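Worked example

This section walks through a single chain of length 315. The input is the sequence exactly as stored; nothing has been trimmed or padded.
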Amino acid sequence: MSAAPREAPAENQTADAVLMIRPARFAANPETASSNRFQGAAAADREVAARAAREFDGLAVALAAAGVRVHAFAGARDADLPDEVFPNNWVSFHEDGTAVLYPLLAPNRRRERRHDVIDALRDQHGYRIARVVDLTALEHRGQYLEGTGSLVLDRVSRIAYACRSPRTHDAPLAQLGRVLGYETYVFAATDRDGHPIYHTNVLLSIGTRFAVLCSSALRDEAERRQLIERLAEHREVIDLSFEQLHAFAGNLLELRTPAASVIALSETALGSLRAPQRRALEGHGELVVADVGTIEKHGGGSVRCMLAEIALPRA
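Given that input, the structure is written out below as tokens.
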């Protein structure tokens, strides 16, 4: 855990808008398979890609119907980008007008970064982008930090939580903390077979008044207790089992609408929750549920991975 950074203004915990990229050539990515044990192996297949596109549309429509502003961009048909449906790994947006570009482990994922998308959010959709923080040069040093996959942000308290993995390294995390004025809180987490969990947002989600955590993934008892105590200071902690972790129950995201808070999650995740856990979540917002089973099975990520929150101010 790092020392607290310089004082910086608090942000809202939730955003009212999201960036989504509709996948043009979705498939399992062989370049990410070794570090993502949630991802199933499969050859590129047109029907798999078509199902993934339909699942994307279903989530986008469900969020828009709930009152979330969805900025959906078409994927790149002329490039082999099997994971482009997960834009939160290459960019994050912040209330002070900052956009951050992140260093990614897999070479074919680095081509997902799109300045045209950032330009469109500014020039066509009316967001103010005051600066772009580019951390991508760290890739040349073998140092990676994959956006709000690697990071789970407590935007109110300005704490960036991260579990170490082949995709999440201490040096770029510390650099991000200095740039954004965030304390960084680093821990070790493994899946039920003892392998490092590739992204923090698979095991932890932080909302305004709740946190979802698979505490069993932290094998060090003192580290586990400390994290739970930290989260419980201001939030109800909903603890998950390993079975629920692998059903993507931790990969959910609270958003806000003009009327209320909503919590976006997959049908797989919802189906894994016990009744008390579901009631606890429902106490914090309307559940917006979508079937993204193909994306989960072949991409190794779920609803939260598909959403890059847009916390930018309006121009």
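What to look for: Residues 1-6 have pLDDT under 50 and may be disordered.
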